Fold these 4 entries.
Entry 1:
Amino acid sequence: MSIQLSLMPPYSGYGGTKWVAQVSGLDPKTVRQGRLDVEAGLSDYPRDRIRREGGGRPLKKKDPHLEADLLGLVEPDTGGDPEGHAQYTRSSLLTLATRLGRGCATTVGRLLKPLGYSLKTNVKRLIGKAHPQRDQQYRFIQRLKAQFRRHDQPTISVDAKKSELIGRFKNAGARYCRRADVVNTYDFPSDAHCRATPYGVYDEQANQALVSVGTHATTAQFAVASIRQWWEQLGRARYPKAHHLFIEADAGGCNGHRPRLWKRELHHLANDTALSITVCHYPTGASKWNPIEHRVFSQISRNWAGHPLRSLDTMLAFIRGTTTAKGLEVKAVLDTTAYAKGIKVSTREMATLNIRRRRLCPNLNYTIRPNQSLWTVSP
């Protein structure tokens, strides 16, 4: 059935489009578009055509060789894994459409999808070569930690969080509010008041953490100073009979297993507190098992998500306000000490440190004792 478009205007009032669609059997969208064309003076189509140029069956059905021609253009231009796990084409959809000579970029993208090509981003999944004794190290840490707890000795998890620019800068995440905060377009460090790095010390038994916010270099001295603050403010009162301290740490960074300065500063801490200090590092790529990562830092990031850290007081307030349903308590202190970078510890000085390494992964597991130890029984 056909209908003259010139008859549509009298029925173009309320309900007219629906009436014409029912009479003609056409889709209401088609009728509405036809009415708009008539009003725009575009009704003088050739009588031998019922569709405008480009309408009709899909291009693939019109040209059965189109897919083969497109595949011939794509295959020589395909790169990726020779085993076929990941392949990509170097040419854009617009370039392929131009070289193909028919169709548009959207059509080319639609035709490439059944061939296994689609728009994808990189997937972060590779962690490099795993430590040969990663599982043994993880089980050893859990056994040793349980042993310390049975003897009522403190066990802490330590790590440094990502440094943050303090000022009118965008903070990742979103929050419910009436009006969004207006922040700087660019994150230029020169526009910041300072750069702050939170270093956390987490007591898993007490579900309590102390976060020291440093405003200068994140060095091993800063890390050990944060541990010292935890012991003086929280640890000594909670563990009055402690003679041995157990520390879980990552393998890299300021508290990694390689820096000599980290071990020297821990030895100074052991001498000052009369504590023997056992350190166990998680292998590279396994830091997600460090309790402070998912029990403290993730909660802090969630708490200040979408809030610009305009000042150090704002950062400290968000850290102190971090809680969980299981009763996490977080204390925060500001450390403005200017820690020097590039401090070297000589081999001769390292030889004076009282360090005993474990047989399993000796680089990752070691105990530092004070020169005059007050403890009598080691867990």
Entry 2:
Amino acid sequence: MQSGHNIDFEKASFKDFETIPHYDIFQRAKAFEQFTGFMEDRQQMNFRFVTDGCGPEVLVRSLFAPDPKLCISLVSNDYLNFTHHPKVIDAAVKGIQRYGTGAGASPLIGGHHEYHVALENKLSAFFGRTQGSSIVFTTGYTANSATLLALLKKEDCAIVDRAVHASVYEGLPGTNIKKFPHNSLVHLERALEEARSRYATRLVIVDGVYSQDGDLGLLDRILELTKAYGGYLMVDDAHGIGVVGENGRGCAELFGVLDKVDILSGTLSKAFGHIGGFIIAKPEIINFLRYQSRQQVFSSTSSPASMGLLKAIDLIDEEPHWRTTLAENVDYYQKGLRDLGLDIGTTASPIVPVKIGDPHKTADAARLLFEAGVYANCIVYPGVARKDARIRTSLMATHTREQLDKVLNAFEFVDKKLKITRR
């Protein structure tokens, strides 16, 4: 299907509508509206909304049904379900009762309150750093983008794993970029060698847990290479912190480099169950960001409800059984999918992709899963490569075995309908 342009809706992705030759912004938006309508008619649009918050089961409204549907949720990064932990909720409520509902200003002109100070001190201690080693941002996305925009300039170079999060790339337009294939140490070393004498700063940027495949960055070996060539290492461990590692400190702890990573970025919206992001680094870097990051200067910061985070961080140590239960769920679920012959790649985390390849078949799989009471995300290009479409699933500590069995049965049903196994 086409309408006044050369885009074939049967083969199109969202990225095809970013630029259409000779179309202005309103014409592009109209063409995109026609495309999403085409996808809705085929029941392949994935946009739905939850009516009752995060949880292992949620009520979901879709475009195609008048009433909410009770589904097992595989779309949330609330890995420990701390969004509903009574102690976290109680701390957040008390924060609002004491400080009100908003911060009132950007951090640099009066919006930095004592609960922000307490949170930053708590984060520094959580990672075994001195006070002054952390800074909080409004979102995890902004923690990456704003930090990199402030730190890296035209005389510097970012050496980036191609699979890092989009927020990293958002922060790099003002500097030089070298990309290396995912987890390829050979290509990383080549990039480091080429950059060594050309740039003032060589900052290697990788993820701890990668958000689409759920696999891990090879942090110990990456750090060793980086230091051998005089570079610095930044790790975005949004999906690992609170979940991975013996004490929940993330992939840097797992690989034994927690005290050696130069810049550690994370989010407060996943394992910690709220919203926000943070950077852990030497105090001089944190001080620089506090006065040079445009987000710190011009954007309001987190609300008093973030007082709940002070309790959530404590709970990582006080109630480790949540991490243990999550790990048991992950092992059970991954084994079940592999036993069905499904391709889940090299995941080593609660993020478990079921790789299908064909984007339209993947969209059909998401629809069939939803009909079976399973809410999961259809991920296609440009979120992943054109031929690497998948159903992305995320597990929680509060999923029951009965719920996971229902999900596995649903995938078995989908496979019989669509032949999605890759034996």
Entry 3:
Amino acid sequence: MKEMHSLIDDGVTAEDLGRVHLIGVGGVGMSGLARLLLTRGVPTSGSELREWPSLAGLRALGGTIHMSHVPENLDDVDTVVYSTAIPDDHLEMVEARRRGLRLLHRSEALAAAMTGRRTIAVAGTHGKTTTTSMSTLVLQHCGQDPSFFIGGESSETGSNGHHGSGQYFVAEADESDRSFLRYRPFVSIITNVDADHLNTYGDLDGLTEGFMDFARCTTPDGFVVTCADDSRCRELAGRLVAEGRTVYTYGLAEDAHLRIAEIASGSSGVRYFAWLDGRPLGEISVPTPGHHMALNSAAGVLTALRLGLPEECVVEALAGFPGVRRRFELKGIAAGVRVYDEYAYHPTSMDAAIRTLRGVAGDGRLIVVFQPYRVYRTRDFETEIAAALALADQAIVMEVFGPGEVREPGEGGASLTHAVGLPAADKVFVPSWQDVPAEVALRAREGDVVVTMGAPPIALMGDELLTALAESAAAEEKSD
């Protein structure tokens, strides 16, 4: 497959877009792009229907936020940006075409912002956001001041987009709709290749070819970084090397350029020993637990060292990694119950996250509140998602979040709940959002861990769960 045409190829910059308007600006990807444009000085507006947490920050940066979708939002606008989630018949899309405005997919606008920078693009079925965040932190800590676009927010800064003064631009590259083929990276990172987005690629082989096309977008003077432990990535690496491309690998495999070993994960984080080209680097620690976190950090370490950054600086940066919102994020503690939020919705990511949280729960129970993300994924991976949920002590399953999708009879949350291999008393389908906090308060007891997991909206539920737990405990005390 040929590369998608990119505005980078035409030398178009963010400033060339004029006044930019983003439809659905509250989502994490669109808000990151808006933040990037605003910190770059590009006049930016956006429209939304709900007050997402990111909007206050965009207003503080000078962004104009319209809490409605109306034609007047496009007055004095030069470029309108949309995401794959926005349908062609959306009111503002129709109006933009009627007015003859420049209409760009989010990835095209992001590509314009990359023009003139050395881009580090992070792709993969799992771990993109964390790896992008870690790579950004390392570059920042080592004085590079990179620009960045992340599909999540740093727990420390709350930022998912920024225009920096340095030569590097770190970006999360989305494979779901092939839009990552619009970038021309100096470094392409592929964390893993697992079955997902088969509605776009047809099958796993088609998805693998999509990642191969992405790697081929790497500039001739750049390099590809990928995981030696992932079979599909190993296949890609071999093919790329045969084409004369520079590829570096990381992982537990003996032949990895950056080899890691003795991974130890606990509630305080993960640590491991590393060797670069056979030379020991010593112990590396990250204050976020999980075997997968070790691999994500290894990708960042290898990239930074191949860029020539000092070893001591790289290791020190990771030791202070603040984490990423919606990735093992502690929302609070109420009535002795810890409430976390976790973005995982693909079965492989869910399995890793739930196993990590089981370790954190210790003698307590793990209760997972899961909102499935996308009808097609829930249908196609129902058995695998159910198996991951069965690793918890209890599972509360909500209805599928799938904007624009049609759910056929027999598909969705009820079917998934039935497939979960837990006793009937330990699993329940709760389709109504407002009924979930009470269900959690009924089931949870002191020492338990509750995690909200899955589609983006469920990230907003943590505070409601904490309130319900606190009120339930207070009511019990009063009755005693």
Entry 4:
Amino acid sequence: MNCIIIEDQPPAQRILKKFIEDIGSLQLKGVFSDAIQAMEFLKSNSVDLMFLDIHLPKISGIDFLRTMPNPPYVILTTAFSDYALESYELNVVDYLLKPFSFQRFVKAVSKIPSSNGVKHSEETHSHNQENRKEIFIKSGYEHIKIAVKDIIYIKSDADYTEIITSEKKYLSSEPLRFWEQNLNQKHFFRTHKSFIINTSKIEKIIGNQVYLIGSIKAPIGRAFKENFMKSLLQ
């Protein structure tokens, strides 16, 4: 399924491009910072789906959509919930409120009648997590390969994350949420807003502390404790 992004914020463009790449069944044909650019592209090109931001320069996403006699499927993206009712009156597929997760993105795309490959893509993404034995850590201009089984825990620290193994500490520019989504959730669990631990490295749990190999302690946040304990008992 061919799609385009109409979004004026580079960080939002990057997230959408990454999610489109991960989902597999979508082919990105263009990224546009305003609706006028997209309009020129659509005069000579057809697409199946538009990811359309509402707040755009020159003309809003809503007004742009109203000008189209036969629009493709549309998923609106916005940081504001004020336009939800108006957007559904325009028969859009879904309304994504920023910031949204990969799972929420997949759910939106799966509502498109022609998106037969989406469910399979989501399952493949999960399967790949389970079978991934190595990961590449982006550190500055380098991509460093490490074995997933060697990770003890991952800690968020300001604008970067620390990946701790038994032998070395790595600094990554990826946020903690990236690792939460890309590591096998059966073995890597978020115990705190700043910590993801490898459950195979647990030695004991006392109160709100997890004791990992090498006398390492990690906190268990109140908001995470119930789900964490349930996951260990399954």
